[in-house]
Structure formats: C-alpha cells, structure tokens
Amino acid sequence: MAEHRPGAEPAIRVAADGKVLLAGDWTLRALSTDLPDLRAQLAQVPSAARWDFTAVQRLDSFGAALLWHAWKRRWPIVEGLGEAQRRVIGRVAASSGQLRPGGARFGVVDAIILLGGALLGFRSHALGFIALFGQIFLDLAHLLRYPREWPLREVSANIHKVGVKAMPVTALVGFLIGVVLSYLSALQLKIFGADIFIVNILGLGIIRELGPVLVSVLVAGRSGSAMTAQLGVMRVTEEIDALAAMGISRSLRLVLPKVLALTLAMPLLVLWTSAVALLGGWVSARLELDLSLGFFVQTLPAVVPISNLYIGLAKGAVFGFLIALIACHFGLRVRPNTESLSVNTTASVVTAITMVILADAVFAIATRSIGVPT
Amino acid sequence: MSAGPVVALHDIVTRFGANLVHDGLTLEIQAGEIVALVGGSGSGKTTLLRHIIGLTRPAGGTVRLFGEGLRDGTVHERIARQRRFGVLFQQGALFSALTVGENIAFPLKELGVATDAELRDLVALKLAMVEMEPEHASLMPAELSGGMVKRAALARALALEPELLLLDEPTAGLDPDRSAAFVRLIRSLHHELGLTVVLVTHDVDTLAALATRIAVLAERRIVSFGTLEETLAQDHPFIQRFFLGEHGRNALARHGGNY
Prior knowledge:
The structure holds 2 protein chains of 2 kinds. By secondary structure, chain A is of the alpha/beta class. Chain A contains 13 helices and 4 strands. In chain A, α7 (167-192) packs parallel to α10. The termini of chain A are far apart. Chain B is of the alpha/beta class. Chain B has a domain at 7-84 and 162-254: Rossmann fold (3-Layer(aba) Sandwich), CATH 3.40.50. Helix content of chain B is 40%, strand content 24%. Chain B has helices spanning 45-53, 75-82, 100-111, 116-129, 146-157, 176-193, 204-210, 228-233, 237-244, 246-254; strands at 7-16, 19-29, 34-39, 60-65, 68-69, 85-88, 164-168, 196-200, 213-218, 221-226. In chain B, α3 (100-111) crosses α4 (116-129), α6 runs parallel beside α7 (204-210) and α9 (237-244) crosses α10. The longest helix of chain B is centred in the C-terminal third of the chain and has 18 residues, at 176-193. Chain B is globular and about 55 Å long. The mean pLDDT of chain B is 82. The interface between A and B is large, with 33 and 40 residues.
C-alpha cells in the first residue's frame, strides 16, 4: 500500500486479429483518472469484436456499466472472463434499462398544468390563510371563556423576541433613513427658502407612512422568517405532531402567541423607530439648516395633527398581525424536507412584505381625509 | 489485496469540554473484516466513527485510512481518499430535496464520469443490490419507511464502489424481521464486493450474525478486540453485562451459539 495507486491502470488494446485485449483495473477509482481517453478508444472498437478479459485484474459495477454501454447493451463474444466478473457484468445487464429517462419535454399541456397548479395553489393558500385567520378568533373566544388558559408566558417571550430584540436594528435603520430623508428635503427646501417646512415633511412622512412600513419590512425579514422557519422545523421534527398528540392546540400554543405578540409589539416598535428617525431627521436639519431642537419639538405637534400618530400606530398593529399570521401560515405548510422549508420561508417573507404594502395602500385610501392639513 | 490495516487508530484522545471520551484508544482493522464496535451509551462509538470519516478531529493520536494519514496530501488526494469509503448514517441522511434515484446518483454525478444512460443503469443496479425496486427511484425520502430509508442510504453509500463501508447503527429502529433482512443484505454485499465493514451497534443479534471481530469500547479505550468467542471469554464487567445479560444470552442462543 506504499505506492499511491494500488493495482494497475486500465488499458485497452486491439490485437492484430481484431481481438480487444483489456487489462488492469476496470474500477471507478482507476478509470476516473483518464476516462475520456478510454471512452474514445472503446467507441472505436467495431461492434463484432471479440473481447479478452484475461488480463483484467479487478472489475466493479462502474467498469461493467461502462463496458455494457460500449457493447450497446448486448453480450459480445468474450474470453477469459472469470465467474465473479461475469456476475458483475450480468448484474449490470439485468438492471440495465429499468429506469426510464424522465420526460423533460415541456409542452402546451404542461403549461396548462402549471397554470392550473398555480391557481389551485393560490386557492389552497387563500383557504388555508382564511382558516387560520378564523382559528385565531375562535381561539380568542375560547380564551375569553377559559381565562386560565391564556398562553401568557409564550406571548411575553415572543414580545421580547420580536420586539425588544429588534430595537437596535430598527433604530439604526430608522436613524439613517431619517438623516437621508431630511438631508435630501433640506437641499430642495433651501432653494425656496421654505426651511421650516422640513418639520412638516419629516413629521408627516415618518409618523404616518415611513415608520410603519419601514418597521414592517424589517420585522418581516427578521421575525417573520424566523417564525416560519421555527414552525417549519417543528413540523420536520414532528414536534407539532407531538403537541397534537398531547391534546394541545397548535394554534393556541404556537400561532396565537406569535400573532398576539407581534400585534402588540409592532405599534411600540413603530413608535420607537419613528422617534429615532425624527431624531435622525433633526440631526441632519441641524447641520444643513441650523434648526434648533427646541424649535423642532415645538413645531412638530402644531404641524402634524395627532391623528397621524394614531394612524401610524394602527398601521403598526395591523401590519404586525398580518406578518405573524402569514409567517405562521407558511410555517405550518412546510413539508418534511429541506427544499420545502426554504421555499416556504422565502414565500413567507415575500408575501408578508407584499401584503403589508397592499394594506398600506388600503390605509392610504381609507384615511385620505384624516390628519392631512389642507 | 494489500497488506496493512485499512483503518488504523492510534492513541486516540477525545475530549468534550471536561469530559474525556477516549484516552489512548488504539484499534487496527484489517481488510475484508466486519468489525462491530460495541459499547455503552455515551461511550463514544459514534464519535470514533466520525473520527474515521474525518468529520471530527481527535484531540490527540492519529487516524490512518488505507495506510495513509487522514489529512495527508493535497486536497485532491484527501478527496480521493474520502471516496474510497461509504458511510451509512444512523438516520440515513438522504437528501430530502432529491428523489431516491437522484440521491443514489448524486455522488457519481459529482464525480462527473458517467453518462446519463450509465447513471440510470447504475442507479437501477444499486437499487437491485439493496433489494429495492426500480420504481422506488422516483420516490422522495419522506415517502419511505424506516427500513427503506436505510436501504436507499446504503445504496447511496455503495455508489462510489467503496472498499470500506462504515455503518452507524444499521439496524436501530428496524423491526426484528427487517433487521435480520438488513443483516443478510450487508453480509451478502460483503461477500460479493469484498468490502471491509465497520459497524457501530448495540444490538447483540446484529453483531452475532454479522461481525467477524468485535471491538468493545469501555473505560475510554478498546478493552477487547477479537472474535465473538474470544470476546465472551473475557471477564470484563461490561462484556458480561452486555453479552451475558438476559437479552444478550437470548440473542446469542438464537444464533446457534452455546455460551
């Protein structure tokens, strides 16, 4: 075993009388070093040739498959083939052609099937989502009748996880967005000499619109994906089945605390992020327009009606509810394989962000006459 | 075949935090043997197997496979060495996103040597070797029963024509009937392919039916390495408990021994 390559190199030689002489190891390991060359040599052998195996030392099923395909799946005339080697080739011959190549052609019918599948998939998602939505309210009704069963620990743990722990990242992003928004607006406002309107722009823009949407996108990516992945892995490892077997409702213990926690935590996160974004806006305004903090704080309530804050907080609660519900919906649909886990986690985040923006549009239309100075 | 042990473990030391698992463990496995590694729960059997595969690295000592150090040579030489053994993990570890057929074809496809037609035939062949039907190739691992998962995983372990087969609890979780069938399967593959097999087990039935030699892992090292008769002659307390407890005695009696 001292030399690096035990056994002999596979070799093929055509003798003067047309006999094909094989030699060496016809094993996967020996063959894989110089396979293209050997294939080319095998391809040149005429189909009626006789094959001599006398010098073949070892033959494994890969070597046998290689030869069998070189022989166009028919036994040629062979010589010097040992009993064991004949069995190896015989086994390859016996199982050859049993697996059909998968039909990879894509036709009109496949397109229709694909379209129909997508529509049915959408329908199933919609039904599942509505069922989960209803289940949340049934669970709430149940909890009102049996107040002792409130999953308060889970709710509080979830609030900590999705709310408290998200504060640094939302603050950082909020601050930077505030700085950028304020800087860009200040440049324009300076041209018109309308410097003090920076407070209106920042106040309305951040409190009413940017704060809730910004936090939703961050939370969907941060907590929504985590919820989907957690439920998904619990499905893969049968933990959800274990819960069901103990007679514990999965919606009550797993879904409701997440939905409730995010619905409660999101308005607080929106408040926090909006405040930090306004601070960032002021910092930028201070540098660019020399606006004092006192003036900024005094003017803000005067130019931004308080109803905007309520709209922002309400949006936060609704978006949080949607994100958590969508995350749980996709998490519970994970099938026990890794591919399904990744597909559902992606779908959860994308759907949550899309739905949040759709809901934001609905909010914009529904509240178009509230809190906007005309 | 070649001289020298296929697997050589020398002075292995393994530590998990403050917990010393192996302390100066030495074991040499010759070509063509079926060695069963037995030991109590937490005695580090699976860890030893992972050392051999190279998934973990012992704190001390050397692991040599086929006469070469496990981490010797260039990256290519290391990869080539890893392709000389096949592993059957305890849970099968089939790739859940691929079908059974794709799982078995995966190592060969990675190697990039076989044509599609050859691949299909080789997959059908490996399936036949582990006594599965060609139709099973299109199933997903999630659709298989426990015994089928083990068979499919074994077929994948055999895909690269290994010289050494490492099995982690091959019969755990199988009913006695399936378990016996799986043991027969491994024995016939060993016979036909001339493999060296290392298996971790704590099933007396399996090792009595399969192993040519038994390595007993206790007190952080190999306390006994020999045939079943030689092992039973030892009066180490673990061996006495393991083989000559009620369950062990029944299992041995089933395999025709009179101990």
